[in-house]
Amino acid sequence: MSSDKLLRLAGLAAIAAGILSAIGDVMSLVVDLEGADAAGSASQRIVFGFYLLGTVLLLLGLTGLYASQSRAAGRLGFAGFLLAFVGTALTVGAIWFEFFVVPDLAAQAPELATGELGFTGFALSFLIAAVGWVLFAIATLRAGVYPLLAAGLLLAGALVSFVPLFVQVPATGLLLSGAIVVLGFFLWRRHGALASTPLQVAKPAD
Prior knowledge:
By secondary structure, the chain is mainly α. The chain has seven helices and no strands.
């Protein structure tokens, strides 16, 4: 399979990741995810199911978004990609726990299901991911491969992703999800079967 086809698939993965995560965020506005009765409920599993699939696809999309601008993004881009990938991968584990383990805890040990199990690990995972996405967004802005508005939206979404570390605010991921969809679309379009020109390659940034 050619690199263009792989990048095109990565673009589709990014689009799907952003849409699925956005659906989860919108549902979280009307579904109680914190109450004692919420643990293990069908609505809770649906929300975290969207999050889980979206976050797994995000890893594929992120890889394509970085590969398409790796030279132009320079060392900052690589550092941002590495932290964003590791943090997002750890976040998959946190969401996996919510989807597969919490329902069993709710049935067998309800007091544990509503407790703060592994809070430090969860917070650390989201912190690494947030820092990585901010660095990656800054590198994307500097590289100039993607439209300025799309890269700026990514940076804004990455900065907003810090909010849940300090205060519980629902749907804070919507902005980042929207940015991922936009960037994924540009990646998919520029590496389509009919594309005749390569992505712009800017001078490598330090």
